[in-house]
Amino acid sequence: MRVALAQINTLVGDLDGNRARILERLDEARTAGADLVLFPELVVTGYPPEDLLLRPDFLRAAHESLELIAKQTRGFACLVGAPQLARDLFNACAVCVDGALVGVYRKRYLPNYGVFDEHRYFQPSRELLLLRLGETLIGPTVCEDIWQPGAPATELALAGATVITNVSASPFHLGKGREREEMLATRARDNACWVVFANAVGGQDELVFDGHSLVIDQDGEIVARAPAFEETLLVADIDASTALARRLRDARRRGLVRERSTLPDPPVIELGEPKHSERSITPMRATTLAGPEEARAALELGLRDYVVKNGFTTVLIGISGGIDSALTAALAVEAVGAEHVVLVSMPSKYSSKGTRSDARRVAENLGTRFFEIPIEPIVSAVDGALHDAFADTEVGLAEENVQARIRGVVLMALSNKFGWLLVATGNKSEYAVGYATLYGDMAGGFALIKDVFKTDVFRLARYLNERAGRELIPASVIDRPPTAELRADQRDEDSLPPYPILDDVLEAYIELDRSREELARDGFAADVVEQTLALVDRAEYKRRQSPPGVKLRPKAFGRDRRLPITSRRSA
To answer: 490 in helix, strand or coil?
Structure first.
């Protein structure tokens, strides 16, 4: 049989737009001679629809859209992810054949960890379903179902399925594509079956879906692989008899099959006969991405979709002459084009000639619009207004932060005036320890690199230059010691441990949940651990007020890591 995996980029809540994209891919699959077409999890509504699922009118409209899709499936079968309201709400895979909605498989395992909240919305099901296409039995599953090492995949295989399908919306983090591929290959080998995995692609708020759809044979070998971070229709031919032959040779499975034979067989939906197209195809085997290229692609897709899906045309970035804003600007230009990026430099009396010059050079190198708006007159006016209130106090952090907040006011004024999306430039190291100014450099509608540690900021900057074959980001920006330039001769390391050390502690504490005692055993200096942990815990209230940004690592701030602001705890 010939399968087509429609790796498409949907928009949450856009029922009409999503249906149009689905029907477009159905036409392509029909032209390709597909017998079975797979679409991602909840493709009808977009994923994750969150509390839209609590609105009965939305659920009714989603079902009507699904029925319209089903009418366009004449000549082949189609598996479509959609919510199903039947006494309760289910995360379902709808089976559409020859113009009709003929059955539904309901997701068994509902993830409720990390970024997932599916128990808030859905009821789990324990019902199995089989599909028959010609002589081949197919077992449908939905996303998390396939991540479990046993049922439902094992039960479906023991019931006779030689092909397990999985419609998925599996969010990305660095390395996720390889992890997922290894897991799916293991499921294929363990169950002696083909695995056909169709994943979503695109950005949705903080989440990015990487696609990377797969067709894997019973030996765990990759037959077809879709590219990461782009829409495509992946088409491949499956000879399920190879799975049956492997099972017949594996005597160890006989006992499991005998045990399963005491249970009632799952219902079977007939999909008809495969077309047996004489026109052979060469399946796509896209290369997997890794390292800085994987990070670049995810960040750019996340920003591009946030801009486009929210109706913006132009991105606004405060450019300081430092590496964070330069990297953010370079990524933005690749994501939406130089003509849609505006860079604004806002020097104060503490801004050096070098950073002022580099801010302009970054704009020139990237080909963006550029404005320089000095803030010293505004700072002086605010200092004068606060003079009496601040009398008899030492000049310190509050005065420094006035500058950052004035920059935030200037940028938000431009954003407000022209409808530009302000993109904040803070990185994960800064957000972790609170080395950022609330209502200042944290202002904005999106924080692109908020899940990128400072050491990785440097790596990405160098990589973008290497990839471009020229200096997008001037070497002077990369080589300059990091500084906020809010006071004379300021350096980040005046207030923080060196970033290579700090980032190692942050990764262990935030992402691996290492305790104070474990960090000491890991060899980190006690004073560094104490300082870092205190800063991280104190900054929770700031992070709650930060803009959304691309989830890049396994545990990002926000939905991945939910800690109380008000607490007294010991790490």
So the answer is: coil
Distance of CA 242 to the CA centre of its chain: 35
Find residue 77's DSSP bridge partners.
36, 97
Burial of 258 (0-12, 13-18, 19+ CB in 10 A): exposed
- How far apart are alpha carbons 68 and 48 in whole angstroms? 22
Count other C-beta atoms under 10 Å from residue 194's C-beta. Answer: 27
C-alpha to C-alpha distance for 175 and 431, rounded to whole angstroms = 23
Residue in the block written with tokens 């590219």: 227
Q: How many helices (H) and strands (E) does the chain have?
A: 19, 20
**What is the Cα–Cα distance from 346 to 92, expressed in whole angstroms?**
52
Question: Could you write out the DSSP letters of every residue in 185-242?
Answer: HHHHHHHTSEEEEEE-EEEETTEEEEB--EEE-TTS-EEEEPPBTS-EEEEEE--THH
Strand partners, 124: none
Task: Tell me the three state secondary structure of residue 332.
Answer: helix
The average pLDDT across 23-47 equals 96
Structure tokens at 324: 């964070």
Which amino acids are annotated catalytic?
Answer: 41, 107, 143
| Cβ pair 517, 571 in contact under 8 A | no
Which token pair is 319?
């450019």
How confident is the model over 60-111, as pLDDT tens digits?
999 999 999 999 998 899 999 999 999 899 999 999 999 999 999 999 999 9
Q: Where are the alpha helices (DSSP H) in 419-539?
A: 428-433, 454-468, 475-479, 499-506, 516-521, 526-538
Q: Which of 285, 243, 203 is nearest to 552 (CA)?
A: 203
Q: What is the CA radius of gyration of the chain?
A: 27
From the list 7, 34, 42, the residue with the least C-alpha distance to 97 is 34
Return phi, psi of residue 505, to 5°. Answer: -65, -45
What is the predicted pLDDT for the residue at 11? 97
**How far is CA 452 from each of CA 206, 253, 327, 374, rounded to the nearest angstrom?**
13, 46, 11, 29
Q: Which two tokens stand for residue 351?
A: 């801004």
Here the tokens at position 198 are: 């169709």
* Spatial separation of the C-alpha atoms in residues 504 and 529, rounded to whole Å: 10
Do residues 510 and 502 lie in contact, with contact meaning Cβ atoms separated by under 8 Å?
A: no
Per-residue tokens: 194 = 């083909």
pTM check: above 0.85: yes
9 pLDDT band, cuts 50/70/90, is very high
Residue closest to 363 by CA, chosen among 377, 344, 382:
344
Q: Which residues contact 396 (CB under 8 A, 6 or more apart)?
A: none
Dihedral sign from CA coordinates of 516, 520, 524, 530? positive
β partners of residue 106: 92
Is there a cis peptide before residue 48, judged by omega within 30 degrees of 0? yes
Dihedral of CA atoms 476, 482, 483, 484 in degrees, nearest 10, equals 110
Tokens 């607490």 correspond to: 567
Please name the residue ranges forming H helices in 289-387. 291-309, 323-336, 353-366, 376-385
Q: Which two tokens stand for residue 562?
A: 């939910």
Angle at 199 between CA 167 and CA 237, to 5 degrees: 75
Pairing of strands 130-133, 421-424: unpaired
What pLDDT was estimated at residue 93? 98
